[in-house]
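SAMPLE LOG
Freezer: B-3
Tube label: C17
Construct: single chain, 433 aa
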Amino acid sequence: MLGSVFKGFSYRFLPALAHSDYRKLWAAGIFAQASNWSLIVARAALALSITGNAAAAGLVTFGAMIPILFVSPFAGYLADRFDRKNVLIVGYLINVVQNWILATLVLTGTIEFWHLALLAVVNGIARAIQQPASSALLPNLVPKKILFNAIALQQATQQGGKGIGPLLILPVILTGNENWAFVISAWLYVFALLMVMNIKTASRGIIQAKQSIFSGITEGLSFVYKVDALRLIFLLVAFHCALTMAYETLFPIISRDQLGLGSAAGLYKGGAILMIAIGMGSLISSFTLAGMNSAVVRGRLYFTFGILSGISPIFLGLSNNLTLAAIAAFGMGFSQAGFMTVSSVMIQQMVPDAIRGRALAIYNWQMQGLMAGFNLINGVLVETALLTAMKVLSISGLIFNIIMGGSILSTPLRQIYREGQISCEQKTEDCSQ
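STRUCTURE (predicted):
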């Protein structure tokens, strides 16, 4: 009886995991994202602890995200020019090295703020290399009929890593050994690298032999912005990332100013618990969508997720104890992951494999770049007398809700909200995609 229940669950929610190379990519994603998010929590808390300045926490988070703006277009080109697995290995290897350097500096007590900032930039460069290669490789590892499931499960690793990583470092934080969080982060990337090295599928895009790097990048950029529906989804995701997902800098500040966790250990604890709550909400949302076959339901949920993404940060800003803050953070993770999962599926379905690396690099470039910029802006704003973390979260959430309300005026977006897909002529010039 139990076996048949598990078999039915696997058939509906986990069909992509039946494919060996996809399982390896998925496992690598879990380890890498867990490492990234544990590092984001620990690095922001360490920066605030070293300097006592909220802007410093914003700066290291900004440093880890801003390389996306400069590296992603070239990383997308590499993901179409060379074997995507090999590009992914290079990105993972860089992160293994920088994680171990950081862990060594922290454990030996020789860490300075400039070390933290510099290594955050290296971390961001490596992640910029990884992301388009991983996303472009994915559709080649599963049959097209289960692509939605594969993308939803990948989103579960990306979004769920926000909870898994901080959860793994929470025991060392609670026992007063927070420096070992950086060692855990380093080992997680080692495991991710080993997984990727065992992928057997070869995958690359199509770039003409004499085509220049600039021309290749421009080809992906022009495709993204000439398709109306694709361009509108990109813009909606841009506002979503800037206004609802640039919260990492604010977590240690909320812990200090609203939740009464002002000690060095408290900064780690508050940030970790809030991120765990975000991750758990994200994980549940992504797995729920992975088993959802109705495009109509997904489309209607897309709009609902967008509205909730604007409302939930307001509740976090109003929370005055850790329990209420964690509940609000769970809601943020649930709604934001749902919105990003459906967005990613729409984009993957509209972009042909020949330029997928470049198109997804532009997606990551926009998404991570805006999150980086607004993390820095938010950190600076709460250091002024004008705004608190509560006001930043509330104003940003309200603005995004206004944008979501206005989005129903767009015909392609309205069709997505109503039907969960767009018509053939709005998708691409080639309806076979």
